Structure formats: structure tokens, C-alpha cells
Amino acid sequence: MAAMLAERAPLPRFFSRGALALVLGLYTIYTLGPFLWLATMSVRTTAEISADHYAWPKVFHWEQFRIAWVDSDFATYFWNSTIVVVGAVAVVTLLGAAAAHALARYRFRGNRLVYGILFSSIIFPPQITLISLYQILVDYNLYNSLLGLTLVYVSLQLPLTIYLLEGFFARIPQDLFDAAKIDGYGDLEIFRRIVLPIGMPAIATTLILNFIQLWNEFLFAVVLITDPDKRTLPVGIRAFMGDHFQDIGMIATGVMISVIPVIIVYVFFSEKLIRGMTAGAIK
Amino acid sequence: MASVQIHDVRKSFGGFEVLHGVSVPIEDGQFVVLVGPSGCGKSTLLRMLAGLEKITSGTISIGDRVVNDVQPKERDIAMVFQNYALYPHMTVAQNMGFSLKLRGADKSEIDQKVNRAADILDLRRLLERFPRQLSGGQRQRVAMGRAIVRDPQVFLFDEPLSNLDAKLRVAMRAEIKELHQRLKTTTVYVTHDQIEAMTMADKIVVMQDGIVEQMGAPLELYDRPENKFVAGFIGSPAMNFLEGTLKVNGGQPWVETANGAKLPITAAPAAGNDKAVTYGIRPEHLEFADDGIEAEVVVVEPMGSETQVVARIGTQDIIAIFRDRRPVAPGDKIHLRPRANSAHLFDKETGKRVN
Description:
Chain A is mainly α.
């Protein structure tokens, strides 16, 4: 009887393992498929793509990347995107962490009021602020400038960042701060040497989210930037879409160029991202 | 090492006063335990001693120095926290040497002091680990190591054992006591566990609602509690309380309960005849006696070394502890006699001791 059970037991497990693998496999194809398709298109010309949408590239037109980078000003767009997004993410991360720490740790009058106002700004869709932001930027001579767009990006991402980090920072035990005070740390050092290192998983999570969000941001960029040489990547790619003709090959190449930094940032911070997501489970 | 003087200290949060003028003298090298139910102000008092809370009024001195306005790091104290408060991104050795590093000590001095503390606490092989790789007991030892490394005038402990399981708690209790006997550093220890207080303290300070109810040596508090609160708080199982009135007939006084049971006492207190009192008797001061008070057994708890019996007198439950094994079962009628010379009498209204 025992032997029979022993023989029969692995079967359901085999099936559940197999089913799991099947589901994961299908899901991978489902999510990775479009990306691979796009990757093949990026080395095919628009004419080839029109002839057969799904064909494997017969000739790999790597020169498309050079054309996009040099002739189609992608180098400029890429550089603009980098300045704006890296600048905005750096400011958001530092300012957001500092604000979150203050809200999580210090008792002061109006603490919850400030928190409430910040939180309420998350609720509204960003489009609502578009027209007023446009007007403000025009008034302050920041319209059609990378600095202006950076500031807008900071204001867009700051509330959610503070909200996420506050939740994480509030869970750091008060004892740790008391111990640091007794050890001889001042307020700023506590933030820099205790909160930042301990909050790193959460900070890395917001960093990735903000980076991806802003790197792909189109709406504010297209409204607040007019000069072609100040375009960011998502707006630059849009330039290949004419009213009558769409240069699919070049669009695919541009998208591939724009995707690469996202992948790099993600891979670099993803271990920390996962740790941040599971932070509640490990004490 | 230093003496500590807490003199008429008050603390208010907003308009709400939580400590109402607390004075505690602590001698050099003494192990003082602040004990009381949660919310009694014991942790607030400790945090004020550490410099983590401001003092509303009164003075705290460490040695000859009033420290009211001295920063925590300059008070020459070390504190062990309930949640250990180890820096998770530092190794055990870094955690322990951190305060010295901040003070600008050179590396060889830090290493030497860390190693010495690690030897005392048997942490040598854990020095390169991170706190997350340690068990609860090990983390607590590291927290203590961090305190030892500072070589402070005063150790402060804030409920350091309450996150540990029962067995480990007993072991760590002995370890802390041994450590104190070895280092002889003045120690202030906060706990809500009266057993910890009894077993470790040179002096216990019992607090309730922001005032000191009584302070003294553990057995002094156990044998002669000044009021009903201390009597009920110190000792486990807790002292039994029976409500009654004081009767004196000729030279022989007793306390009579509502259902007519007569509880013996040795001498008539100053309080007069017919005064409403609370009669307190510890579980181990009840004996079987044929002429005792009749009680019905409710629960029998054999512990091996002793037997606890919950019995009902009238409507009141009392607990008795017996060293010998008696064949009693729930529902049995037994007769219990309190030892007259171990009885405690408290004023029913004020709770103050009257005998």
C-alpha cells in the first residue's frame, strides 16, 4: 500500500509542474513575442516589412541604427531624454526620500495635512494639470526648455514617490533612530547613513518605476516642447509617423534604441526591486 | 560608573502629564528595575534618562552632572532596545564598533574593544555576520555587546527580553545578571514582567499612572507591599484579595467576609472596628486545616514541584499553592487557613497598607 502510494504520488506533481511550465511558457511567448517581432523589424526596411509583416529578416540592415542615430537625430533625442529623465529621477529620488523620511518620522503640526494633500494629488489624472502647467511654464520662460520639462517631471512623480517611500520608512523601527542618536548621529546623518541604506530596496523600486514612466512619457513632452532639437525620444519616434506614410522600419529601430536604457536600468536595479517588493516578508 | 539622581521629574505631552513628579535615587553600581503595567511611564522615564525625550520639569543627574540639556551621545550611557536596533546594513563587528568609530577612535582600539566584548558574550564567530543571519537571542547579545563596547557610566535596558521566547528569556536573564555582577556598571532596566524585576534587581521601582508606588529591594516589596497595587503586581501567581470588615473582640482581631468567613490576623491595626478592609494573602501562605475556611475546588494545576489549586470561597476565587501532593479534584470541599502572620491588610478605599 505504502509502495503504491509512493509510486502514485509524483504523478500529480509532475502534471502540476508541467502545467506551470506550460502556462509560464505561453505567458513568456505572449509578452516576449511583440518585443521580438519589433526587434526583427528594426533590422528590416519598411518596404520589406510591408511585403511580409512577420518574416524573419533575410538581410540584417544594421545600418538602420546608424541612420536613426546620425541622420534622424536620434542621438539628440537620446541625449535630451537622458538629461531630462536622469535629472528628474535624481531630484525626485533625493527630494522624495527626504520628504518621506520627514513625514514618517517627525511629529510636527500639519504632518498629516501635508501627507493628505500629497496623496490627493495622486488621485487626479495628470492631463488635468496640463493646461495650467503650460501656462505656468510660459509665464516663467520655461516653456520649450529641457529645464522646464524636468521640473514638470519632478512634480509629476514626486507625490507617488513620497507616498511609496513614506510607507516603507514608517516601518523602520523607532529604536534604530534612538540608537543612532545615542551613538552620536545628527538628523542629517541619520537620514544619510541609516534611512538611505536601509530604505535602498524601496528607493530602488521607485527609481525604476520613475525612470520607466518618464523615459516613455509622451503627453507632457509633446505639449511642452516644440523645437525639434529639444525633443525627447518618445516625441522623436513620433516624427516618423506622417499623415499618409509611416516609416515602420525606422520607428521600430527608434523604439529599440529607446528601450535599451530601460532594460539596463531594470537589470541593474531589479534584484533590489524584488527585495523591495518582498520587504514586508523579511524582517 | 556613576550614581544617577532622578529628582521630581515631570513629563507632559501637549497638555497631558504622564509623569507626575518622579524621584528615584540610584547608587553607583546598582541594578535598578523600573516595572509597571504598560502606560505607567517607565519607558518614558528611561528615555528621558537617555536624552531621547525632553524633561518638562525636575532634574536628572548622572554622576555629579545635571544632564537635562545634554545630548544623548554626550551622556556617557549605552542603551539596549526591545527591537535590538541593530543596523541591518552593518555586520556584527561594525554594529558593535560603530559608536567608537563616530567618536574618532582608531581602528586598533575599536578592534580591541569589540573583541573584548565579543569574548564576554561569546560572539567571536559571529562578528562578520549581518543581523538578519542571527537568531533572536544572538541579536540580543549583539545589542548588549554594542552597549559594552562603549564602556558607559550607565547601562539602560528597555524591555530587552520581551521579543524572546520563554526559555531564551530565562537564559538571557541570567546572562544579563551575570554581566552586571562582572562589570558592576550602574544599570537601569525597564520591564513589565515582575519576575524579571524580582530576579534581577537590587532595587525595584514599581510605577503606575506616572507615579512611583513603591521602591525597595525585591523581597522587601514582596514581603511588605505598601499598597494593594504593589501587593497584586509583585508575585506570581498574584496575591489573593478578600473583601471584609475588621473585627476586634477583646484582644483577638480578625477580618470577617460578607459570607461570614473569619480570616485570622495577628494584631489589630490602628484602624478601628468595623472598618472595611481588603485582606491579602499570598497563595503559598494558605494551608489545609480542618478548622479553616470552607472552599470549593474549581481547578487543580499540578506542576510537579508544586500544585496550584483554584478554590472558591463564597463568590470569590483564590489560588493556593501546595508543595505536597494532595488528592483533590474539582468539586471537592476543602478547608483552608491563611497564616495569620503573613496576612496583609489594606484600606478598602485608599488601598494603603494598614497593618
